[in-house]
Amino acid sequence: MNKQTTGSPSRSRLGTWFDHHIYSLVASFGRMLGKPWATALTIGVMAVAIALPLGLWASLANVERFTGSVQQSRQIGLFLKTSVAVDRARALADELRGRADVAAVELRTPEQGLAELRERGGLGEAIDALTSEDGTGNPLPSLLLVTPKGDEALLADSLRNIPEIDVLQHDAGWRNRLDGWLRFGVRLAFVLAALLGLGALLVVGNTVRLDIQARREEIGVLQLLGASDGFIRRPFLYLGACYGLVAGALALALLTAADVALRAPLAELAGSYGSGFALQGFDPIQSLAIVFGAGLLGWLGAGLVTGHYLRQTRPTTT
């Protein structure tokens, strides 16, 4: 009996603390619903501020994926002389695979190249005119696609001395420029995220400030009754978090709508290049991180504004 008596006050305090959190959360949603126009404006501005950098980041990720993997973009094309037989091309591929600076070698025979041109190039009639019925007269050479393991420039220079090679195709300039643009784009996305995130924080902070001003008499009474700053601040923190959570969900909805609108024309464009590329959005874990990150942003904005107000209005003791 004594144990229950001594344990009940702590459980009562914990229950009161928990009940106030639940009440603050529910009351925050109630205040949002009580002023729908102002709430819609605040959430809309926050959602756009969140969606813009996320959309840019997602676009850059898809562009990087569209350009292919790093290994594929580093491949060196070795066009052998037309006089080199396929057996010699296979032997040369095996020799290159044994090098320490080569990760992989893919051989494409003239027959494979001709079949690929028939399928993708739309040059069937022209190819039939160049080749005879038994397949002779194929003007294409054997092709070796070499994937470097180390420095591709050094490997390309060393491969130029192979006598069977007619043309060595290695243009890393475009890839270096593309990588530079992608790095710039990622940095731009972070800068925009910082600036627009600051704007979203100021928006939710201003909205919470207006709510604080409307309830300043209630806050003054609570301070006179000895309520702690945490007790007074809690409903406004939940209000800011609610704004952020709903804005994060709306930002994801806007990005999903943009993805749906762009998917069909992009698939048609990629199909004209013989590619099955499709836009890739955010996975469930990333989506949850975005929503909760937006909620944290709203929580932070509300906390800064509420803390500043309480420091200015805290009663002075004499």
From TrEMBL:
Q: Where is the FtsX extracellular domain?
A: 75-166
Keyword list (alphabetical) reads: Cell cycle, Cell division, Cell inner membrane, Cell membrane, Membrane, Transmembrane, Transmembrane helix
Domain ABC3 transporter permease C-terminal per the UniProt entry, residue ranges: 191-306
**Pfam families reported for this sequence:** FtsX, FtsX_ECD
Report the main location listed first in the record: membrane
Location relative to the cell: Cell inner membrane
GO BP annotations listed: cell division
The similarity annotation says: Belongs to the ABC-4 integral membrane protein family. FtsX subfamily.
Describe the protein's quaternary organization and the partners it interacts with.
Forms a membrane-associated complex with FtsE.
Q: What does this protein do?
A: Part of the ABC transporter FtsEX involved in cellular division.
What name does this protein carry? Cell division protein FtsX
